[in-house]
Design brief:
Helices cover 72% and strands 0% of the residues.
């Protein structure tokens, strides 16, 4: 993913967070997108594991799902992040 695509997706996620029903999902999505784009320079392996597996309550589930979606989208070659 190039920087322009990353910045475009971050802008969209921030917009959805402001107007959407699930701001916790978008919080996780942006965090995962950053981790995928910047790699190990963003956060630690332990934090990455926690974000990937958090599920103690509904807020954590939404954040974790968003994180996984953002992370997966940012590391897949040619991924369609628009959907």
């Amino acid at each position: 993913m190039d920087r322009d695509t990353f910045e475009n997706l971050m802008y969209k996620a921030k917009s959805f967070k402001k107007v959407g029903k699930h701001p916790e999902y978008w919080t996780g999505y942006m965090h995962g997108l950053r981790r995928g784009f910047h790699g190990e320079e963003f956060g630690t392996s332990h934090e990455h594991h926690l974000w990937m597996t958090a599920c103690e309550n509904e807020i954590q589930k939404l954040r974790s799902r968003g994180y996984r979606d953002g992370f997966d989208c940012s590391i897949q070659a040619g991924a369609d992040c628009e959907t």
